[in-house]
Amino acid sequence: MAFTALSVAVLTISDSRDEHTDGSGRTLVERLESAGHRLHTKRIVPDDKYLIRAEVAAWIADPAVQVVLTTGGTGFTGRDSTPEAVGVLFDSHIDGFGELFRQLSYAEIGSSTIQSRALAGFANATVVFCLPGSTGACRTAWDRILLEQLDCRHRPCNFASLVLHGNHGHG
């Protein structure tokens, strides 16, 4: 089976970052492009539940977007609201993503990983991964999980094949 590039949208959620200071979003774009995927678009929105939900919902509704990656807003401080904004959009949750991410992150940041509410799910034939805002967390998620799971050649299973064939579960 040959590699199939996926169309990926990247959303940075931050009240303070802009294109020049968005290391996490830049890291995700560099990694997805170096893996052979296509960047559909990249945006930055403030950490506001309704602005986040509107952006992600628009991408979920766009048949040209197969994968959405968000970075930021997954903690417990102040305005962190990504799980509340995005989780309600899922047809089915990928519980194992958050579990595996925190397991891998534990080796890097110890028990502080318990404060990550990283999550993922399927919505309208789109797979959505919500990552923490730190560049290190984005590297960990991409290098240790997403690189393989967004490659249709990865065995025994991967999310790329489910997105490409529209064969995913609904809640």
Report what the structure shows.
- By secondary structure, the chain is an alpha/beta fold.
- It has a single domain (9-165), classed as MoaB/Mog-like domain (Molybdenum Cofactor Biosythetic Enzyme, Chain A, 3-Layer(aba) Sandwich).
- The protein is built from six helices and six strands, in the order βαβαβαβαββαα.
- It has a six-stranded mixed β-sheet, sandwiched between helices.
- A hairpin with a 2-residue loop joins strand 5 and strand 6 (126-131).
- Helix 1 packs parallel to helix 5 and helix 4 (95-109) packs across helix 5 (135-149).
- It is globular and about 45 Å long.
By helix and strand content, what is the structural category? alpha/beta
Uncertain runs are none
Major β-sheet profile? 6 strands, mixed
Helix count from the secondary structure assignment:
6
Reported CATH architecture:
3-Layer(aba) Sandwich
Mean pLDDT: 95
Distance between the termini: 29 Å
In what order do the strands lie side by side in the largest sheet? 2-1-3-6-5-4
Q: Cα-atom Rg, whole angstroms?
A: 15 Å
Order of helices and strands: EHEHEHEHEEHH
CATH fold group? Molybdenum Cofactor Biosythetic Enzyme, Chain A
CATH superfamily: MoaB/Mog-like domain
Count of structural domains: 1
CATH top level is Alpha Beta
Rough shape? Answer: globular
Provide the helix percentage: 25-40%
